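Weekly modeling sync, notes
Attendees: AB, CL, MP (scribe)

Item 1: holo prediction request
CL wants a bound-state model with glutamine before deciding which constructs to order. AB pointed out that an apo prediction alone won't tell us much about the pocket. Agreed to run with the ligand included and paste results into these notes for async review.

Input as submitted:
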Amino acid sequence: MARPFYKPAETLVKVIVVSGGVISGLGKGITTSSLGRLLKARGIAVTILKIDPYLNVDAGTMNPYQHGEVFVLDDGTEADLDLGNYERFLGQSLSGTHNLTTGKIYRAVIEKERRGDYLGNTVQIIPHVTGEIKRTIREVCQAAGADVILVEVGGTVGDIESMPFLEALRELSYELGEGHMAFVHTTLVPVVGPVGEAKTKPTQHSVRELRAIGIRPNLIIARGPAPLSSDIKTKISLFCDVPPEAVISVPDQSVIYEVPLVLEAQGVGTRLTRLLGLPDRPPDFAAWKEFLATYRRGTAAIEVAVVGKYTDLRDAYLSHSEAFHHCQGHLGVDIHLQWYDSEDIPRNPSLIARLERSDAVLVPGGFGARGVEGKVKAIGIARTKGIPFLGVCYGFQMAAVEYARDVLDLPRANSTEIDPETPDPVVCLLEEQKTVNDMGGTMRLGAQRVVLARESKVAALYGKTEIWERHRHRYEINPKYLERFEKVGLRVTGRAVDGRVEVLEAPDHPFFVGVQYHPEFLSRPESPHPLYLALVRAALARKEVVRPVGVPSALA
Ligand code: GLN
């Protein structure tokens, strides 16, 4: 007799599935994160798994213009940006197993087939691929020690790529039985026409599509520009076969951290605990509410210049924007991010003039030669005008290039990533990277230990001399130039255990810090990153000196 391909595990798991209908980009990631937060606020241990139905094994080789920023986890996984939302909303770090792609599933199935694990059977989507998906979901939940796992299915119901995943989830709900699984469907309720009529038809169609697969939603999250009227809720309830109280209206919010409270106010937390047979303790949102109250207070305003090359798509720098939101929620300062396409800077004097009036400058990470000169220019402005500056990864490397060119008087200094023939390679390849050709997962990735100099600004900001930060880079500062940098006042104040340069700072500047790692990945609403807080504080302090208090910047 043939052995079963998929043996249900003894331990039962509780699963909340979040699917999406009508269009992508509805904020499913924020919805999923917020649902997780509702349970966490009740003392329930949760974790989240993101399913990306594309064939890529991970997001590492993907262009930020297509999927937004690549989010790096502690273990070095280059993940979908939603993993960043999960970590921020839950206040928990996740590992690479929490981002499942079709590429990963097929790779696992094919490896098993090659090993002979399927004992000569024909390997098929059902049961082998679906079995692998179900096994992974259970394993991830158990490994995380969670009571509940939320599974967000990327894409839109009806996409060919997501079919095996939805089928696996349907099978899983059957296997787990009543009270173990809840299906949440996120849809769009557009408002159209001269009188602003809310339309339910797209929702009806997408729920019908879901039901054709054998999944009946327990909750419908209706996204749209405005709150739903009770008439529209009743209509969706009738057509989609869910109670009216299970039709939840989530209109656009000015800050995403509102969403858990919007859901809570409509009874979603209690509904989910009932569906899953979990205790419904009163939720604790005290700190969350305080964060939002401070966020809205906005007593002073600063403008931070963000200089990058993917500025048309804000999602490409999502974790940076969020890090500033976290500062706003702690300092009560309105932070306006002004985006600069670094390619435009060298040829546009009005951009340069505006940059010079910024309260702070952030140069984030990046790759390749395009737009690099604009970043160097922006760093030069920050350095010479005393504008607080934070350089992250590529921004840090470009700060070294700027210093070398302008202060060390090495006009052709560069990174060998941009100019392999430069006479002054102040940034060059890591020794072990020289032989690597593969593009996926080949960088220095993930959390690495950094030792900070005792007498340094960064050590004071972190309040310790040993930190762990996430990395994603190939190139590094060339140690040959360090002595000269130190002589002109650019200090190395952080190093990896093997000696690589991790932090540079200029002590004679109000705030000039460059870091090889990516602090933005570790900033959370409940614990903003010290470097972002310090940048904003330095900007505020400088503003008080430069302009009289109470005078709007346009008049000063
Ligand atoms: N391109 C640089 C490197 O590979 C910086 C990478 C980054 O900013 N993430 O080292």
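Recorded for review: The chain has 18 helices and 23 strands.
Action items: CL to compare against the apo run; MP to circulate these notes.
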